[in-house]
C-alpha cells in the first residue's frame, strides 16, 4: 500500500474536507483527490463520498482510517524513542490509567519505582476506560491500568491484578442507610452517575439488565468519581462506587452504605499492554515485575 497516499487519506479523513486537507498539507486540491483515487484503486474499495461541503467516510473508509491512525501514531512513537536514544536519555515510562488504579494503587507502585530507578521519567494520564484504552492503542501510553470485566479487545494483552468490591452509598440519614433492600427499590432513588465510557456506569447498567430492573433516573452526572462522592456527602443521591474510594468516608460516617439483596459486585483490575509489543522496554519490564510482587 502506498504510504504517501494513505497519509493524505488520513488527513482528509480526520478533517472531513479535501479542500482543508490540501491547505494543511500545502498541496493542491486536485493532487489530494488524485491520491485518494489512487488509494481507492489500489484497495479496490470506495473510501469517501461527498457530503455537503465536506466528505463522509464509507464503512471501509472508517476501517482504514482507524488502522491508519494507529500506524502513523506508531511512527511518531518510534521517532520519539529514537530521539531519546540519540540524546542518551533513558526511555520514559508512559502510563494511562482509570481513576481507581491511578489514585489508590499506582501511587504506591510509582513511589517504589522512583526509589529504585530515580532517573526514570514517569508520565501518568488518567481518564475513563475508553479514553485510557485509546491512549494505549494509539501509542500515547506504554501500558494501561483499567477496571473492567467484559472485554472484547483482541489487540491487548491482559494481566489480572486484583478484584475490587463495589458498594452502594447514600447520604447519612437516608431512609436506606444501613439497610438491605431490593435493587428494584433502590433504583427508584435519584442516582449520581459517571459519564458515558466510565466502567462504574457500565457496571450499574449491566447489573440492572441482569436483574431485569429499569435503570435509575439520572439525578446528577459527573465526569469524575471524587466529585460524585462529594455530592453524596453533601446530602444528595445514591451512587455505586469502589470500596477503595469510599472506605475512609464510611469510617468517618460521612456517607452510609446500602446492601442490596442478591448483589455482590467485584470487578477486576487489569494491567494492559499492546499485543503487538513482543519485546517490552527494560523500564516497562522492571515496573511490571514490581507490580506483580504485590499480587
UniProtKB/TrEMBL annotation:
<dbReference type="Pfam" id="PF03466">
    <property type="entry name" value="LysR_substrate"/>
</dbReference>
<keyword id="KW-0804">Transcription</keyword>
<dbReference type="InterPro" id="IPR036390">
    <property type="entry name" value="WH_DNA-bd_sf"/>
</dbReference>
<dbReference type="InterPro" id="IPR036388">
    <property type="entry name" value="WH-like_DNA-bd_sf"/>
</dbReference>
<dbReference type="InterPro" id="IPR000847">
    <property type="entry name" value="LysR_HTH_N"/>
</dbReference>
<protein>
    <submittedName>
        <fullName>LysR family transcriptional regulator</fullName>
    </submittedName>
</protein>
<keyword id="KW-0238">DNA-binding</keyword>
<comment type="similarity">
    <text>Belongs to the LysR transcriptional regulatory family.</text>
</comment>
<keyword id="KW-0805">Transcription regulation</keyword>
<dbReference type="Pfam" id="PF00126">
    <property type="entry name" value="HTH_1"/>
</dbReference>
<feature type="domain" description="HTH lysR-type">
    <location>
        <begin position="1"/>
        <end position="58"/>
    </location>
</feature>
<dbReference type="InterPro" id="IPR005119">
    <property type="entry name" value="LysR_subst-bd"/>
</dbReference>
<dbReference type="GO" id="GO:0003700">
    <property type="term" value="F:DNA-binding transcription factor activity"/>
</dbReference>
<dbReference type="GO" id="GO:0000976">
    <property type="term" value="F:transcription cis-regulatory region binding"/>
</dbReference>
